[in-house]
Input
Amino acid sequence: MLTPGSPASSLLSELKLRSITENARQTCKIIDEFGSFDKYIWGFVNHKPIVGQYRYPRQVPIKTSKADAISKDLVRRGFPRFQVCVAAADSKDKDEGLKAKVEEKQPEETTDLGLARAIDGLSLSTV
Output
């Protein structure tokens, strides 16, 4: 782990600060172009919410074509992405294989509880 005040933590904080600043600049450009950031985002779905008919939260897809299109456009516009995003995607792929093995051995209720605990432990913050 990084200790506060160490050279590595100072560098990491500086990189995050630069990313935050650059993302803010890109957000301002989008606001200038579209009038607001929410108009830009809503434009990907024709300004209408997408309502899924999923019975269980585990049925909701992690990736969709709309989400991929938004992500690619944000990156194209210059929004920085943290390596953590890539690492999280890689670990998710590894977790899928592990989850399949666990589901073979445990009843569904126990697997749902374990998955819920794993999700609770995730940090989605990029700051």
User: Anything to note?
Assistant: The two ends are 16 Å apart (CA to CA). The helical segments are 7-34, 37-42, 65-76, 83-105, 108-121. Confidence is low (pLDDT under 50) at residues 106-111. The first helix runs from residue 7 to 34.
